[in-house]
Design brief:
Elements (H helix, E strand, L loop, with lengths): L1 E9 L11 E7 L9 H12 L6 H4 E2 L2 E2 L3 E5 L2 E2 L15 E6 L5
Parallel strand pairs: 1-7
Antiparallel strand pairs: 1-2, 3-4, 5-6, 5-7
């Protein structure tokens, strides 16, 4: 089974994703594995979408989305959707918005 999603990188995060805000992503479920979860998407993003490994700490810290990055599942804070345990569904829109600002 596969899941087709839209992934958005906002608030300056697009700079580490080829300056592209919206990406269409299809994740394939490994045979015999349970349903795809948001943690699988985070792993996919880290392994396949960030080209410069020096940019990984901008997005990931301690194996999860870095504090200061607002994560939304279909416009709902991921904290209300079981965070990394959220089971992905076709058509989901997952948004990552940086609230971190340099200065």
């Amino acid at each position: 089974m596969s899941v087709a999603l839209t992934v958005e990188f906002l608030g300056g995060l697009d700079a580490i994703f080829q300056n592209q805000r919206k990406h269409k992503v299809t994740l394939d479920e490994a045979s015999g594995k349970e349903a795809l979860k948001l943690r699988d998407l985070i792993t996919y993003i880290t392994n396949n979408m960030i080209e410069n490994e020096n940019d990984i700490p901008v997005f990931i810290q301690d194996g999860t989305v870095r504090p200061g990055i607002l994560t939304l599942v279909n416009d709902t804070d991921w904290e209300l959707c079981d965070e990394e345990e959220y089971v992905l569904e076709n058509g989901d829109v997952i948004s990552f918005t940086s609230t971190l600002h340099g200065g």
